Amino acid sequence: MKTIGFIGTGNMGGALAKAAFRSHKADAILLANRTRTKAEKLAEIVNGTVVDNKEVARKADYIFLGIEPQGVEELLEEIMPVLDQRKDRYVIVSMMAGNPLAKLEKHFGKVPIIRITPNMPTAVGSGVSLYVTNDQVTKEENEYFYQLMEPSGLVEESDEATMAHAGGVKGCGPAFAAMFVEALADGAVAVGLPREKAYRYAAQMLKGTAEMLLETGEHPGVLKDSVCSPGGSTIQGVRMLEQSGFRAAVINAVIATFEKKF
Ligand SMILES: NC(=O)c1ccc[n+]([C@@H]2O[C@H](COP(=O)([O-])OP(=O)(O)OC[C@H]3O[C@@H](n4cnc5c(N)ncnc54)[C@H](OP(=O)(O)O)[C@@H]3O)[C@@H](O)[C@H]2O)c1
Fold it and tell me: How many domains in the chain?
């Protein structure tokens, strides 16, 4: 019997709680949030029980931390006395940005710790989440955690360097992709397409293109070339994007996110 607890049930905590619910691997889900009504709404969806932070710390086998990183010191003051009393095994799961395993071990001590970096589309089961474990996590705990998170989308065990290198693409990428959809739609509106249709068609196009790339495993250039018929309109659009520095802008955006210091 595994009890899965969440402290902080905002966008990401809520998304991972939904994944845990859909996995059918959680025997009980405990939810604690500063604003209780948020946890109450989520509890209806995931068949969870609303409790306080200390109760999650006391009872959960896996304790997910979905609060903002700047709130961790205050939370530690509240829950460490409870965790220190526990004689049974528990796993800390942190989704807090900018908190590597070494820092989490300073906070929680040498207990089993998993660090996961979900992204926004996790909320609709199409996320990309990388995770790392410290040396206290057993193979069984690792496997169980993977199964628990699998309904959130692509879930991969990783290392912290890869997590850092992937952040711009998978973590910040949804913002860039949404800007691309917005810009495509603006262009379509400029030539006469109603805005609601323009957003819907652009988003579906992005989804379909992503699905094709994932399914075929082909180089993105192959797909681009196959859309550009000789003398056609697509290659004229490609010419304009290249002239406007589209690729350089995207490459520089990803590098800028990597170089941002906290
Ligand atoms: N958003 C992303 O794309 C993303 C991606 C990867 C990782 N993360 C990480 O995920 C974490 C959550 O991000 P988010 O986007 O989900 O933020 P969010 O929607 O603001 O959620 C944070 C939640 O934590 C609650 N909270 C804050 N302090 C608390 C405390 N002491 N006890 C109980 N609950 C508390 C907040 O309650 P209230 O309802 O009162 O505000 C809020 O519901 C952050 O650490 C972030 O770095 C986010």
Answer: 2
* Domain final residue pick, 98, 125, 159: 159
CATH number, residue 221: 1.10.3730.10
Instruction: Assign 3-class secondary structure to the chain.
Output: CCEEEEECCCHHHHHHHHHHHHHCCCCEEEEECCCHHHHHHHHHHHCCEECCHHHHHHHCCEEEECCCHHHHHHHHHHHHHHHHHCCCCCEEEECCCCCCHHHHHHHHCCCCEEEEECCHHHHHCCEEEEEEECCCCCHHHHHHHHHHHHHHEEEEECCHHHHHHHHHHHHCHHHHHHHHHHHHHHHHHHCCCCHHHHHHHHHHHHHHHHHHHHHHCCCHHHHHHHHCCCCCHHHHHHHHHHHCCHHHHHHHHHHHHHHCCC
pTM as predicted: 0.94
CB-ligand 1 contact for 121 (6 Å cutoff) = no
Atom in ligand 1 nearest the alpha carbon of residue 117: 6
Query: Is residue 49 a part of any domain in this protein?
Result: yes
Atom 31, ligand 1: which residue's CA is nearest? Answer: 75
Q: Is the CB of 119 under 6 A from ligand 1?
A: yes
For the CA of 94, the nearest atom of ligand 1? 45
Q: Is residue 164 part of a domain?
A: no
249-260 residue pLDDT tens: 999 999 999 998
* Tens-place pLDDT, residues 12-44: 999 999 999 999 999 999 999 999 999 999 999
